[in-house]
């Protein structure tokens, strides 16, 4: 594994609520690791040589790195608001590039065609103008003023509404979505995609949410989000090329792809290339 830049990043490797002394055997960027409860009860991650890797506990997940991270893991202030439901959705294994998984999460145009009558529906297929930028101070990709009509924007929604979104990419394999909160106008629901790159063509996806929802149980919220992501999985596993193309000439973007274009530009800027295709084949 030669991608030094991504080696130094933080990655989710397990749920804090699902640890044991025996440990979870998994992989990170091709390297075998074990995620377990340590001797004093705290989570720990060990590499193939049984040596400890750095650990951060945040958003209900265990995070680690194969390298030497120079920065802390990003924060999500909404995670600290006590009235929100913090939903650990679990994990879904997907046969695709970890970068492809994030890019698909940023794609609004597929809503009517993949999540029909839930997140989108014909004839409401047009993506209105929105703003995309790479914020240098935070070193993150942001898309704002995104609006889309949705028949059921959330598990708590009743009837169709025009939903407003903000997309944020704070790390190469993580994306944070802020969207209209039907029960509390003026607030944002937060839906995240944390991706663990097992290899360049295989990943574990850990969705996580911070919601205002007093009507649905945790199980109902988890099932709703799992249903949405499983609809995406079949699309992700059939994309060609398998890895995310970073050469601008390899695919023809449209106006709806502005966030994807910025994400790819940001990846190239930092040499985040694990799971990417750099030249046309």
UniProtKB/TrEMBL annotation:
Its EC number is 1.14.13.128. The keyword Methyltransferase applies. Keywords: Methyltransferase, Oxidoreductase, Transferase. SUPFAM superfamilies: Bet v1-like. The keyword Zinc-finger does not apply. Residues 94-269 form the Vanillate O-demethylase oxygenase-like C-terminal catalytic domain. It comes from the Bacteria. InterPro entries: Cholesterol_7-desaturase, VanA_C_cat. One of its GO terms (biological process) is methylation. It is an enzyme of class 1 (oxidoreductase). One of its GO terms (molecular function) is methyltransferase activity. This is Putative methylxanthine N7-demethylase NdmC. It comes from Shimia thalassica.
């Amino acid at each position: 594994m030669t991608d030094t830049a991504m080696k130094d990043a933080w990655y989710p490797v397990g749920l804090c609520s699902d640890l044991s002394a025996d440990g979870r055997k998994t992989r990170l960027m091709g390297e075998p690791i074990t995620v377990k409860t340590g001797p004093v009860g705290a989570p720990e991650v060990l590499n193939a040589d049984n040596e400890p890797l750095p650990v951060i506990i945040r958003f209900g997940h265990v995070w680690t790195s194969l390298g030497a991270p120079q920065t802390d893991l990003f924060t999500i202030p909404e995670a600290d608001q006590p009235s929100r439901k913090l939903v650990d959705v679990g994990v879904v294994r997907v046969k695709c590039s970890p970068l492809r998984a994030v890019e698909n999460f940023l794609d609004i145009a597929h809503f009517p065609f993949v999540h029909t009558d839930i997140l989108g529906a014909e004839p409401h297929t047009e993506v209105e103008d929105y703003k995309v930028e790479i914020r240098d101070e935070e070193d993150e990709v942001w898309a704002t003023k995104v609006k889309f009509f949705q028949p059921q924007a959330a598990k708590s929604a009743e009837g169709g509404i025009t939903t407003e979104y903000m997309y944020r990419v704070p790390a190469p394999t993580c994306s944070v979505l802020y969207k209209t909160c039907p029960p509390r106008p003026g607030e944002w629901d937060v839906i995240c995609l944390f991706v663990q790159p097992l290899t360049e063509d295989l990943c574990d996806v850990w969705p996580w949410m911070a919601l205002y929802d007093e009507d649905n149980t945790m199980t109902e919220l988890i099932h709703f989000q799992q249903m949405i992501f499983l609809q995406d999985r079949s699309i992700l596993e059939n994309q060609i090329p398998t890895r995310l193309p970073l050469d601008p000439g390899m695919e023809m973007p449209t106006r709806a792809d502005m966030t994807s274009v910025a994400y790819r530009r940001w990846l190239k800027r930092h040499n985040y290339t694990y799971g990417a295709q750099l030249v046309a084949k």
